[in-house]
Give the backbone structure.
Amino acid sequence: MIGIFAPRSAERLTGLGTTIFAEMSALALRTGSVNLGQGFPDVDGPRQVIEAAVQALRSGRNQYAPGWGVPELRRAIAQHQQRFYGIALDPDTEVVVTTGATEAIAAALLGLVNPGDEIIVLEPYYDSYVACIAMVGGVRVPVTLRAPDFRLDLDELAQAVTSRTRAILLNTPHNPTGSVLSDDELRGIAELACEHDLMVITDEVYEHLTFDAIRHRPLCTYDGMLDRTLTISSAGKTFSFTGWKIGWATGPASLVTAAMRAKQFLTYTSGAPLQPAIAEALGLDDTYFDDFRADLQAKRDRLCAGLDAVGFDVYPPQGTYFVTTDIRPLGFQSGYEFCLELPGRCGVVAIPHEVFYDDKEAGRPLVRWAFCKQESVLDEAIERLGRLRS
Ligand code: PMP
Ligand code: GLN
């Protein structure tokens, strides 16, 4: 007898559904809304970097890159870490190029975590952390950053550590809250990691997106952290090439090699002609990084002022290109429902925080808005949101 085949996904994917970013971008497309949801810039990164990629495409760099990444990119990543943070890396053993930070996160967890290990994550968490921890059979242990300041409570962090804790998975500057971990917070994390002999995987993709006088300092530069920290970043945010998916992990050879051993069987390698172009991007002079920051800061201020005028409680970020609001002053309670209804009400799309929490109540009234958009787009969104007041 021929039965009807009913596909069932593996149990490890239970509850993971579709990523909120895909769901909300599809909603924006369907409804013709202004998309302040998924974080991607609406203008391309530097022209000369695009030209470098075109040049690479035309000059035959179209076959597999080495699994570790092309040598000039690995060298450029090492030089970048030296130039901005004084970190010395061997480009041959302490740097691996990945398919975006997303693959670096997956490879790090696959390469370093055993089933049953506990991984401490800051919540709200980036959604791929949850999925990857689940896929490796780990157990996530969230520590909540709470509105309005979204600071890390070091006592709560210390209480989250058990004999099964394998690693802390950190993100600073932090998506979606926009917090940049302070010197005291980073020092506290470092002390805890050393005291309990923990590894730290730190996602620093927004390293160059900080505002006012705030600057990002990598956790691996703190006492005792160099040997126990795997640092992850990506060209997507810094150079506005989110679609290129060029990321990397750096750190001691032992941790980088563990991630690489997993990575080689995920994608092996990718983006061969894009890698030399990102090598060039990493070497751009300080003006590029300063101008990019200043431009985003002005956009942050513009969107924050607009959201404030609409009537939200606004929590201006220290970094990233996202701002969080509380929707309750406008009479709404659930950010998720609000975001589903927003295209119909106003023609705007945003991201509800709730999906990034185990403690759903902490995230329920919070909504994230992306400001890496042209000023006219931000203004249009604010004008449309004005309908919420009537
Ligand atoms: N980590 C965080 C915190 C992010 O916001 C993102 C979003 N892009 C990523 C990782 C993934 O980066 P990539 O696009 O380079 O894979
Ligand atoms: N990092 C982006 C954001 O937070 C989304 C990336 C993705 O769609 N996976 O909006």
Remarks:
- Residues 286-310 form the longest helix (25 residues).
- The chain is about 40% helix and 15% strand.
- The chain has a mean pLDDT of 96.
- The CA atoms of residues 18 and 24 lie 10 Å apart.
